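WARN retry 2 of 3 for item q-0093 after timeout on previous attempt; input resubmitted unchanged.
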Amino acid sequence: MVERIQKAGHAKHSDVERVLRDTPRHEFVPDADLAVAYDPWQAVVTHRFEDGRSLSCASAPWLVAAMLDQLDVQPGNRILEIGVGTGYNASLLAQLTGRADLVTTIDVDPDVTAKASQALAAAGYGDVHVITGDGGLGYPDHAPYDRMIATVSPWDIPAQWWKQLAPGETAGRPVAVPCQVSLLSFSRPGWR
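OK item q-0093 returned
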């Protein structure tokens, strides 16, 4: 999976490559067979509304790698993830930052957060803060964040997110993925 992602130009950072190789993705998508779990181009839907529309998924591995490359997580960074999904991305973030307790992930659906909490604990990342709440409001209790990643489909960057990013020369870096298709990076005015 990782070699195919790298051939496509993602997982450029050695730390991103390492965590993708070291993390058993299939444990976060237990209902998917191994071929689907490790297909670099396929998202795995893990939760649906009653009418069949998808509510939550594990993003395609190529997209996960692209987001993490762009997020450029450094050891010790405090991170907010909007959109818990399966907990897979939070486990990667915990490894990149070096401490699971520096990662906060938030989702509005209690079933999604409960399953992600279980998967994270089983994988050894029970110290990740999994919050049930409105991700559009961010999570000020653990702010300021050095990095913020939205794995949901935001129409815009809410003012609350900007307020929760670390200020100054090392200002926080947000990455958002509209519609889980294209990757956009936003920077605050004055941030390089």
